[in-house]
Amino acid sequence: MNNSFPKQEKLKSRKTIEKLFVEGNSFVKYPIKLFFVAQAELNTTQATFAVPKRSFKLAVKRNLIKRQLREAYRLNKQPLLMEGGKNFAILFLYLGKDLPKYEALEKSMRSLLKKLKDEVS
């Protein structure tokens, strides 16, 4: 069981990210909103993370939250990837207005990934 987050699992395509907002479905478990869309052409599920500049003016704080989101995803993604069938493009958007505790982020992340896995099944 590999808990890494390699380059091929990182979503970087602007077209795909725009497609997430236009055509994608979403779930919310405060303080995270999950956008997802099934992508048949992807080899694996890809994820990206966003923190609004409007809520956090300092890049240091935005980057801290993104690092925490990536870590929570990296540690909890295994059940979603082992599902086998569909691959997704996923965007995690942080909704909170203040710096989160890592435990709260991880709890929300687990809940969202479980909900996505149940949606697939």
Task: Explain what this protein looks like in three dimensions.
There is one protein chain. The chain has 121 residues and is an alpha+beta fold. A four-stranded mixed sheet has the order 1-2-4-3, with helices on both faces. Helices cover 42% and strands 20% of the residues. The chain has four helices and four strands; from the N terminus they run αβββααβα. The chain has helices at 14-23, 59-76, 78-81, 102-120; strands at residues 25-29, 32-38, 46-50, 88-94.
Number of helices: 4
Give the overall shape, derived from the CA principal axes.
globular
- Report the radius of gyration as a whole number of Å: 14 Å
The arrangement of helices and strands along the chain is: HEEEHHEH
Strand content: 15-25%
Structural class, by secondary structure, is alpha+beta
Reported for the largest beta sheet, the result is: 4 strands, mixed
**CATH topology (fold) name:** Ribosomal Protein S5, domain 2
Strand order of the largest sheet: 1-2-4-3
* Through-space gap between termini: 22 Å
Q: What share of residues is helical?
A: 40-55%
Low-confidence stretches: none
Question: How many structural domains in the coordinates?
Answer: 1
What's the number of extended β-strand segments? Answer: 4
CATH C-level class is: Alpha Beta
What's the architecture, going by CATH? 2-Layer Sandwich
Mean pLDDT score: 93
